[in-house]
Amino acid sequence: MNVIETSIPGVVIIEPRIFKDARGYFFESYSKKEFDEKVRPVDFVQDNESCSAYGVMRGLHFQRPPFAQSKLVRCVKGRVLDVAVDIRKGSPTYGRHVAVELTEDNHRQFFIPRGFAHGFAVLSDIAVFQYKCDNYYHPEADGGISIQDESLGIDWLIDPTKAILSEKDLNHSVLAGFDSPFDFNIDQYKK
């Protein structure tokens, strides 16, 4: 796998090595050994999948410590714009984001470390989206930042009048009114 560094250390794009021939293609979508060596040691414990229609925006979600999650995400059908926002107090990149287009054709994956809010917008008629998480879902630890917070400067590549959000996602606070549970100077992976 090829690991592409982004403008925020620790947030990476992963491109698999794809083998194509007349029958189709094959690639290894995940290798713990290679991931631990090239990205960071992570023990993924839960896989999730969602299916969404064009204009659906999910996020920007995170789980509060001690239930914080890293995510390794990919789009297996369709096309999404996937975003990670740094919400670690004291971080030199606090409030900044990385956006990457994930598609069924580019097979890219995106790693979002603990201490980041995550969201995506569906750019195709439908999208099937998969997540690997390194902590189990805990509803009491749910947190979020408004996906429509203009101060974040995210171009979601969809007309805002066509955006489809859940009631929960419509009620998240903007970053300016947010008290982050993450501290840049505390290792979120230390047990």
TrEMBL record:
<feature type="active site" description="Proton donor">
    <location>
        <position position="131"/>
    </location>
</feature>
<dbReference type="Pfam" id="PF00908">
    <property type="entry name" value="dTDP_sugar_isom"/>
</dbReference>
<comment type="pathway">
    <text>Carbohydrate biosynthesis; dTDP-L-rhamnose biosynthesis.</text>
</comment>
<dbReference type="GO" id="GO:0019305">
    <property type="term" value="P:dTDP-rhamnose biosynthetic process"/>
</dbReference>
<dbReference type="InterPro" id="IPR011051">
    <property type="entry name" value="RmlC_Cupin_sf"/>
</dbReference>
<feature type="active site" description="Proton acceptor">
    <location>
        <position position="61"/>
    </location>
</feature>
<comment type="subunit">
    <text>Homodimer.</text>
</comment>
<protein>
    <recommendedName>
        <fullName>dTDP-4-dehydrorhamnose 3,5-epimerase</fullName>
        <ecNumber>5.1.3.13</ecNumber>
    </recommendedName>
</protein>
<comment type="function">
    <text>Catalyzes the epimerization of the C3' and C5'positions of dTDP-6-deoxy-D-xylo-4-hexulose, forming dTDP-6-deoxy-L-lyxo-4-hexulose.</text>
</comment>
<keyword id="KW-0413">Isomerase</keyword>
<dbReference type="GO" id="GO:0000271">
    <property type="term" value="P:polysaccharide biosynthetic process"/>
</dbReference>
<dbReference type="GO" id="GO:0005829">
    <property type="term" value="C:cytosol"/>
</dbReference>
<dbReference type="InterPro" id="IPR000888">
    <property type="entry name" value="RmlC-like"/>
</dbReference>
<feature type="site" description="Participates in a stacking interaction with the thymidine ring of dTDP-4-oxo-6-deoxyglucose">
    <location>
        <position position="137"/>
    </location>
</feature>
<dbReference type="InterPro" id="IPR014710">
    <property type="entry name" value="RmlC-like_jellyroll"/>
</dbReference>
<dbReference type="GO" id="GO:0008830">
    <property type="term" value="F:dTDP-4-dehydrorhamnose 3,5-epimerase activity"/>
</dbReference>
<comment type="similarity">
    <text>Belongs to the dTDP-4-dehydrorhamnose 3,5-epimerase family.</text>
</comment>
